[in-house]
Amino acid sequence: MLSRLTRLQAITVCAVPVVALLATAAFAPLPFSVAQPGMTANVLGENKGDPVITISGAPTRTTSGQLRMTTIEATGPDASVSLGDVIDGWFRTDRAVMPRDSVYPSGNSVKEIEQHNADQMKQSQDTATKAALSYLHEKNDVKVTLKLADVGGPSAGLLFTLGIIDKLDGDGSGGDLTGGRNVAGTGTIDADGKVGAVGGVALKTQAARRDGATVFLVPKAECSDAKSELPKGLRLVPVTTLKGAVDALVSLEKGKGSVPSC
Predict the structure, then answer these.
(1) Is 227 annotated as catalytic?
(2) What is the tens place of the pLDDT at every residue in 37-52?
(3) 80 flagged as catalytic
(4) Which end of the chain is more exposed for a tag (fewer CB within 10 A), N or C?
């Protein structure tokens, strides 16, 4: 059939399905999420009118400075992401295109995903409390309540833990763990104080600097990602353990000792 057509006619015939395929791809939903810098919250203060950290059973300190947990904001699990959205996201420094399954559990309904994220946040809060009290060798009658509205997932664990420590013990010698600075960060925490990677750090550094942070605690494994779009005026401090994070902040506060860098 094609042998009987002129060269131009043959090209036109072959191009039609290709153009149709591209047109379909441009508007068809793709298995990606597009993320951007999200909200941050000072765990030493209030969020939507409620204190983030409430402690009873032990004396607490009045703190200065801030410890800001950071988030990313991604298109919803049921959102339609087109080829145009993906291409736009690839060429912007304040956007990231991520496989949907890396952001949301695969195959779940929106309600199940929301419940999953809420469960992860609750587990993260419980673990952060255990890690902080274990680090401080506090008695079991200390009760900690953590409240952070409209945020899910485990990535605020490190900042919750540091917030509890700052409210109970500060730097251990009467000063603030933050040194009065606006410190932000991200990272999971386990009961033994090990800090884990979380993803989306290049967007979280942007959110942190936007909201005034000058120091950002990042899981060491994600240093290269954090440096990729690092905002001017934000210092990266890599951490692998809770003790390492506390030691780094105390060294920053006192101007003594070694502070790790990416």
Answers:
(1) no
(2) 999 999 999 999 999 9
(3) no
(4) N
